[in-house]
């Protein structure tokens, strides 16, 4: 019985995720809709990262902001993502000493 419940729950979660993948491929959107859809991952990533930046050291949020600015500058220059992460961690570490 538990096995059937697990199968049912997996189908209920899988179906809403799989159906849009097949439908969206066949749809043609206007150019502005495509640009808007392409910017969603960046907005979601920013929404996930920004609260963490502000709470690195709760009583000194400017340190987290400085680390975030350092990461943006290194990414803009074109550094590898690993170097950007290490550089921003190093910036926060040096400023918090």
From TrEMBL:
InterPro entries linked: Brnchd-chn_aa_trnsp_AzlD (IPR008407)
Keyword vocabulary terms for this entry: Membrane, Transmembrane, Transmembrane helix
Pfam hit, one: AzlD
Transmembrane segment boundaries: 36-57, 69-95
Transmembrane helix recorded as keyword: yes
The protein's name in its UniProt record: AzlD domain-containing protein
């Amino acid at each position: 019985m538990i096995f059937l419940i697990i199968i049912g729950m997996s189908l209920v979660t899988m179906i809403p995720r799989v159906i849009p993948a097949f439908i969206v491929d066949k749809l043609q959107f206007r150019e502005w809709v495509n640009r808007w859809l392409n910017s969603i991952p960046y907005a979601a990533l920013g929404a996930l990262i920004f609260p963490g930046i502000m709470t690195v050291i709760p009583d000194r949020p400017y340190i987290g902001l400085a680390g975030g600015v350092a990461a943006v500058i290194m990414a803009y220059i074109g550094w590898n993502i690993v170097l950007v992460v290490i550089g921003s961690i190093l910036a926060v570490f040096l400023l918090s000493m």
